[in-house]
Write a structure and sequence with these properties.
Strand content: 25-35%
CATH topology of the largest domain: Dihydrodipicolinate Reductase, domain 2
Mean pLDDT: 96
CATH superfamily of the largest domain: Dihydrodipicolinate Reductase, domain 2
Largest sheet: 9 strands, mixed
Radius of gyration: 21 Å
CATH class of the largest domain: Alpha Beta
Distance between the termini: 49 Å
CATH architecture of the largest domain: 2-Layer Sandwich
Structural class: alpha/beta
Number of domains: 2
Length: 401
């Protein structure tokens, strides 16, 4: 299998490359980027694998992308190109390559219009195939497949630094992109209930949820994650009563994130403020200050990420709950393996995308056309691959008599 990874110099592109190179049937990987070629070269040199080839590419240029994609089996689009996803998807279609992206930044409807053309060519495009959405959607299907009827789907996501704040010298850490965190906690929560999608207040319906030790109890609350929209639209006849995504952070981080949001330092705020005659966006100031934080002098963050999907419904006339947990931690073998090869930051999303890309290349995804992950990826096979790569996976079943 021959694979293209766009945006390969970034966090997700790097982890996607590492995963691809661990697969014996991947013969060649084109690692492309448009801006950070020096950084990409350093990362490719570190991996030191003859199957890697570097290419400069603006993948939102359809003509150039088509030339780059010709002869490849799969395109894993890790590049962040708002407004450019349709062009990249069309380039893959023209080249006859399977395609997937981590997000389409609102261009999903236009990409979905290409369904018949992808189907006619016998290839597949998968949209929004990251961690959440992406893996999270497949987790729900994995649980739904074990029930006759599904009533509710609840996500409980925890991102927690388990080192006490007094043992840090840095005042702030974050478990994934800081702009993403500040955007999510400022926007209305999304929920599917009473047969319709609803936007309610930011960080709605907080509850205390117990994660696996050492994380323990965290307050989790609503976010504008798209899973309620995606799943309710993908399975319109399922009769869902409720779908919601909640996420929580360790108490110290949560307090600081919300304090900064309430002061106006959120990434959704586009209006600048006047500071002594100079117009400045508050979030830009915050990012500049964070970039200048000194190195940690005591204990660095030890951030554990756990995602739980809890699905309730009925099986053989009995009320049943299926829960799947997928977890990564800094002391895991997988984390040490990936970071030892150059992965960094919240790199798991790149693995999730690359995993689906390999399944496309192996012919394990039979549906042809343009799909969301939950409608085309075999959930059982995908979850088995999560465990195989080194994610901690647990499935529990509860029956109410």
């Amino acid at each position: 299998m021959k694979v293209v990874i766009t945006g390969a110099s970034g966090i997700q592109g790097m982890s996607a490359m590492i995963y691809m190179l661990e697969q014996g049937d991947v013969e060649h990987v084109q690692a492309s980027d448009n801006f950070y070629l020096d950084r990409l070269k350093q990362r490719v040199d570190r991996l030191n694998d003859k199957r890697l080839e570097i290419r400069q590419l603006d993948c939102s240029d359809q003509k150039k992308a088509y030339e780059a994609f010709k002869g490849y089996d799969v395109v894993v689009n890790c590049a962040h190109t708002p407004g450019g996803y349709v062009a990249t998807t069309k380039a893959a279609l023209e080249a006859g390559a399977n395609y997937l992206d981590l997000t389409s930044s609102g261009q999903q409807p236009q990409q979905s219009e290409l369904h018949d053309e992808f189907k006619k060519k016998g290839i597949t495009a998968i949209l929004n195939m990251g961690t959440a959405p992406g893996l999270s959607n497949i987790m729900a299907v994995y649980c739904m497949n074990r029930l006759d009827k599904t009533d509710s789907i609840d996500y409980y996501w925890g991102i927690a630094d388990v080192i006490p704040p007094e043992e840090h010298t840095r005042p702030l850490y974050w478990g994934f992109g800081f702009d993403g965190i500040m955007s999510l906690i400022a926007r209305p929560s999304l929920i599917y209930e009473d047969g319709r999608l609803q936007e309610i207040e930011p960080r709605a319906r907080p509850v205390v949820y117990r994660f696996k030790d050492p994380v323990g109890d965290l307050v989790v609350a609503g976010l504008p994650h798209p899973e309620p929209r995606m799943l309710s639209q993908s399975f319109p006849d399922a009769g869902f009563k409720h779908i919601m995504f909640r996420e929580g952070f360790d108490a110290d981080s949560a307090m600081k994130y919300h304090f900064l949001r309430d002061l106006g330092f959120n990434s959704n705020r586009i209006d600048p403020v006047d500071v002594k005659g100079v117009k400045i966006k508050p979030f830009d100031v915050l990012l500049a200050l964070l970039d200048q934080l000194p190195p940690e002098r005591k204990r660095p963050a030890h951030t554990i990420s756990e995602g739980d999907c809890v699905v309730q419904g009925w099986k053989d006339g009995q009320k049943m709950e299926i829960k799947i947990m997928i977890r990564t931690a800094p002391d895991s073998e997988m984390h040490q393996r990936f970071t030892g090869k150059g992965a960094y930051g919240s790199y798991r999303t790149g693995i999730c995308a690359a995993m689906a890309g390999v399944m496309l290349g192996r012919g394990l995804i039979e549906k042809k056309g343009v799909y969301e992950p939950e409608l085309c990826i075999p959930a059982e096979l995908y979850i088995m691959e999560q465990a195989k790569v080194g994610m901690e996976v647990e499935v529990t079943t509860k029956v109410t008599l």
